[in-house]
């Protein structure tokens, strides 16, 4: 299962967000602590999104993150007040290609899915048939994560992010029980994350919030997030609520 990480705070090096901490996202790519569902390493590429002048930029590579010299040579030269990054372990049967690497981006949004949809794609046939054909044509890759992104983008057009995420989790679970649905969504100023059958931790320091599949170091200021929770974060605070209550607020 992939690992992802989101940062909101003072301007920070984009490369540094990938490599910071003794258990950085890059270390988690070859030595993760908490893999669930069969994978052992996250070697099927990586991606990172950051915000510049209000719009989201990204860099993705289908090779293992530890083989890419840009992580040490180029990405540290960029900085941003928000970064969303992911290392990928492709689900069996799904392609290993750049377009399948999270984060997926559009407009101000960046999105990552850590997990798997059970019975994909057949389990989601009726949900997917609600996506307008022209939007279906923008599916970045034939993977569960990419399809989730297109459906989420649809919901974000009319719903607040917490409601959109909770609605999508409920709809997917109704059709594909047992799915692992850890989502991470950001717009450069806010981050939203779900924990559904997968690990998630959050750290708040004086002026920054980090959300990560696994803590990036052994410091004691990480909060472990309970299963079936939704995290909403700004640079200065985060709240945790029950995912199942989110739609009814
Ligand atoms: N199922 C997704 C993919 O293959 C996410 C992978 C993961 O979390 N391991 O892209």
UniProtKB/TrEMBL annotation:
It catalyses: gamma-L-glutamyl-hercynylcysteine S-oxide + H2O = S-(hercyn-2-yl)-L-cysteine S-oxide + L-glutamate. It comes from the Bacteria. Its EC number is 3.5.1.118. CDD domains: YafJ (cd01908). Pathway: Amino-acid biosynthesis; ergothioneine biosynthesis. Residues 2-249 form the Glutamine amidotransferase type-2 domain. Pfam families: GATase_4. Keywords: Glutamine amidotransferase, Hydrolase. InterPro entries: EgtC, EgtC-like, EgtC_Actinobacteria, Gamma-glu_amide_hydrolase, GATase_2_dom, Ntn_hydrolases_N. Catalyzes the hydrolysis of the gamma-glutamyl amide bond of hercynyl-gamma-L-glutamyl-L-cysteine sulfoxide to produce hercynylcysteine sulfoxide, a step in the biosynthesis pathway of ergothioneine. This is Gamma-glutamyl-hercynylcysteine sulfoxide hydrolase. It comes from Rhodococcoides yunnanense. The gene is egtC.
């Amino acid at each position: 299962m992939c690992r992802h990480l989101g940062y909101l705070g003072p301007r920070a090096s984009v490369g540094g967000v990938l490599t910071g901490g003794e258990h950085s996202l890059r270390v988690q790519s070859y030595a993760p602590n908490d893999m669930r569902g069969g994978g052992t390493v996250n070697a099927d590429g990586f991606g990172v999104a950051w915000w510049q002048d209000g719009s989201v930029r990204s860099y993705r590579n289908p090779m293992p993150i530890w083989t890419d010299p840009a992580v040490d040579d180029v990405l540290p030269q960029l900085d941003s007040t928000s970064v969303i990054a992911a290392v990928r372990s492709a689900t069996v049967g799904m392609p290993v290609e750049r377009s399948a690497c999270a984060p997926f981006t559009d407009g101000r949004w960046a999105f990552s899915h850590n997990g798997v949809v059970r019975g994909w794609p057949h389990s989601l046939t009726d949900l997917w048939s609600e996506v307008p054909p022209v939007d279906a044509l923008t599916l970045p890759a034939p993977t569960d994560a990419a399809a989730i992104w297109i459906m989420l983008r649809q919901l974000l057009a009319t719903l607040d992010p917490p409601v959109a995420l909770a609605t999508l989790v409920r709809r997917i679970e109704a059709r594909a029980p047992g799915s692992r649905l850890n989502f991470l969504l950001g717009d450069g100023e806010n981050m939203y994350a779900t924990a559904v059958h997968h690990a998630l931790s959050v750290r708040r320091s004086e002026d920054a919030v980090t959300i990560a599949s696994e803590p990036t170091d052994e410091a004691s200021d990480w909060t472990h997030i309970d299963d079936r929770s939704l995290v909403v974060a700004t640079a200065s605070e985060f709240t945790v609520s029950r995912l199942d209550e989110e739609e009814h607020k």
